[in-house]
Amino acid sequence: QVQLVESGGGLVQPGGSLRLSCAASGNIFSIDDMAWYRQAPGKQRELVAAITRDGSIAYASSVASRSTISRDNAKNTVYLQMNRLQPEDTAVYYCGAGKNYNAMDYWGKGTLVTVSS
């Protein structure tokens, strides 16, 4: 089993930035990919950004120009830096981990990001 704990959410003004962190523990050797997903009220969960063990990266088109995902394998932690946040970025952000970022095996409990003035 793998446990994922997210941190860094909160209230942000439009145009602001935030950095989310997700620390993994447990059977971390079973993890290849780590990713951030988000789910806004009334919408399906969607991929925001993903990073593989060897550093390959994928972004959703809606965030690609203003986001950076990174990973510290020594700390078993993945980060998501998001800039120029807008109200439509408001969602619960979930950290995922597993063999393939399109079908995560493990999920964190989520952290709420609210973008509002």
Structure explained in plain terms:
The chain is mainly beta and 117 residues long. The chain has no helices and eleven strands. The strands form two sheets. Strands 2, 4, 5, 6, 9, 10 and 11 form a seven-stranded mixed sheet that branches. The protein has a four-stranded antiparallel sheet with strand order 1-3-8-7, with no helix packed on it. A hairpin with a 6-residue loop joins strand 4 and strand 5 (46-51). The model has no long low-confidence stretch (mean pLDDT 95).
- How many beta-strand elements? 11
> What is the straight-line distance between the termini?
40 Å
Identify low-pLDDT runs: none
Assign an overall shape: globular
Alpha carbon gyration radius: 13 Å
**Major β-sheet profile:** 7 strands, mixed
Which key features would you list for this structure?
single chain, 117 residues, mainly beta, four-stranded antiparallel β-sheet
In short:
The chain is built from no helices and eleven strands. By secondary structure, it is an all-beta fold.
